[in-house]
Amino acid sequence: MFDNKSRYTKLTPYEVSDHRGRKVKVVPVPPAPDQEPLGRHLLQQGQRTDHLSKHYLDDPAGYWRICEINDAMLPEQLTEKQEIVIPAKNSLK
Question: Helix, strand, coil proportions of the chain in percent (round to 5)?
């Protein structure tokens, strides 16, 4: 269901009941990775986290790492900040 590089690959889905009583499978939220900060980035208008993660992490799909280190659930939350923390490229443990 997930790409081999996904942080969700090793998590075990479980069943819950939705508000209609239907059984649905959900994937738990993975624990936040332990990341070392590289530094801070001053956001400019129109900059997106996938572009920043391509630039700093060499992985456009790694935008979630920028969100995690900035304690943001969604990338859109970071657009309200003037500066954000950028994780070091190889700091995932």
Answer: 25, 20, 55
Residues 6+ apart with CB under 8 A from 9: 2, 3
Domain with CATH 3.10.350 in the chain: 33-87
The pTM for the full model equals 0.80
Which amino acid is residue 3, in one-letter code?
Answer: D
Q: What does DSSP assign to residue 53?
A: H
User: 52 is written with which tokens?
Assistant: 């920043």
Asked if pLDDT for residue 93 goes beyond 70, the answer is no
Specify the CATH architecture of the domain 33-87.
Answer: Roll (3.10)
In the chain, alpha helices (H): 49-57, 63-69
